[in-house]
Amino acid sequence: MDLVERYSRHSNKELVDIIESPVDDYSEAAIDAVKTIVKNRQLTEEDVRSLSREIIGLRIREYLKNFDVINDELTMPHSRLLNEEEVKALFQTEFARFKNESDDMIPDSWQYILAAAFG
Fold first, then answer.
1. How many domains is the chain partitioned into structurally?
2. With helix as H, strand as E and coil as C, how does 37-74 read?
3. Is 91 helix (H, G, I), strand (E, B) or coil?
């Protein structure tokens, strides 16, 4: 079974999740196969980017939920589909949501951490 056949039964969201996976999770051949499937399904660029924003947003929320302000270094997620500015904007949006939804008091030092990390 080749890779295109292997991944062809996955949903569009699952395929975009594979494309947006961390660099070492899938081989380049698997990523290329998934990109071929997405292209063959004739998804619009906006549909793919919307799924990507949803997936990256979920990853950012999970990252923030587990982030230790003292011991962890703030890093921006990697994206194969969104540019750096889009990822930064998404991170800032998700951080604002996280801060508003958090029951715990977030120290003011978060503002400085975000400013230092993302300028």
1. 1
2. HHHHCCCCHHHHHHHHHHHHHHHHHHHHHHCCCCCCCC
3. helix
What are the tens digits of pLDDT across the range 63-78? 988 888 788 888 888 9
CB-based contact 80:31 (threshold 8 Å): yes
Full domain range(s) for residue 75: 3-118
Q: Token pair of 86, please?
A: 């889009």
**pTM for this model (two decimals):** 0.79
Residue type, 32: D
What is the CB-side half-sphere exposure of residue 11 using CA atoms within 13 A?
Answer: 4
C-alpha span between 115 and 25 (Å, rounded): 30
Torsion, Cα 100 105 109 113, to 10 degrees, reads: -40
